[in-house]
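ping. complex inputs:
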Amino acid sequence: MGIASMLQIDEMLGDFNRMNKRQSLYQVLSFAMIVSSALMIWKGLMVVTGSESPIVVVLSGSMEPAFHRGDLLFLTNYKEEPVRVGEIVVFKVEGRDIPIVHRVIKLHEKEDGTVKFLTKGDNNNVDDRGLYAPNQLWLTKKDIVGRARGFLPYVGIITIFMNEYPKVKWAILSILAIFVLLHRE
Amino acid sequence: MHTVLTRGNATVAYTLSVLACLTFSCFLSTVFLDYRTDASINTVRVLVKNVPDYGASREKHDLGYVTFDLQTNLTDVFNWNVKQLFLYLTAEYKTPANQLNQVVLWDKIILRGDNAVLDFKNMNTKYYFWDDGNGLKDNRNVSLYLSWNIIPNAGLLPSVQATGKHIFKFPADYATSSI
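pong. complex structure:
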C-alpha cells in the first residue's frame, strides 16, 4: 500500500474529476471566503482595539519568566487611556523592524498631556536607552503599537516556526489550499 | 473513508478544542477575582542630591536617595491562574515642570511557589531616583506605593495597587556628603 493510496489522494483526485463546473467554482469561492474572513477578522480587531497590530508573538526572552518566546499577547491602544508605570507596552523604534515588548519603569507627564517614558525588559539588567534610536532618551505616545492586555502561552510558536522555515510554511499552506479546493463536501 | 489523514485530523482537532475549552475555563474561573491586598511601606533615610545625569541629558538633575521598609503578605493573591507576580514600588509626585511623575524604585519577581511573605528592612532602591529636572528638593508630597502586575497562565494582565501608601517629603537642602 503506497502513501498515495493510504492518504486516498487518488480518491480525492477522483472526487475532483467527477465535479462539474458549478461545483469547482463553488470550491474556489469557499476558499476565497476563508481567506477574506481571516482578513476581515484581523482588520476588525484593529478597529476594535485601536492597535495597528492587535496580536503579537513574543520573539525574545527579555521579559522572562513572564513571557517566553512564542507566547501570544493581545494588545489594545486606546488614545484616551493614559500610559502608566508598570504597564507592558509594545513599541517601535526608528531603524528597527521588529517591535519590542517591555515594561514602563519611568514616566513624566506635562500639564498639556504630553508624556515621555522609559522602558526596561524584566529580564534585562539595564533600561532600554541602548535599544532606542541614537540620541533618543524617551519614548512618547506615538511610538506605542499597543499595551499588553491578554496573554496566551505557546500558541505563537507556530508562526515563529513558519517564519524560520519558509519552506515549511509554503508546504503547509499549499497542502491546505489543495485540500480545500479538491475536497468535496 | 477512515484513512490515516481523517483519523489524524479528527484527533488533532478534538485535542485542540479540548485544550482551548480548558484554557478558557481557567481564564473564566479567575477573571472576576479581587487581587487587592494591604502593604505597609515606610521610608528610613531620605536624601536629595544635585548631580549631573550622565545617563540622560548631562545636566544637573535632582537625584533622590531613599531606603525603605516593606511588609506585605501576597500568599492569597496566588491561585491556579497566577504564574508570576511582578512587584514594583513606585514613587509618584508632582513638580512645577510635570503634573505627574512616576519612577519605579524597586521591583521583584515572585513565581508561584516562591515565598510571598515579604518583610524588608532598610532596603536600598534598585533603580536611581532621577527627577526630570530639579523637582525633588523640598518636595513635600511624594507618595510611595506598591503594585503588582499579575502574569496568568492564560488570561488578562491586570495591575493592582496595594492599599496603604506612604507619603514622605524631601529635605529642603541638598546633601553634600557622599551617599
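DSSP finds five helices and seven strands in chain A.
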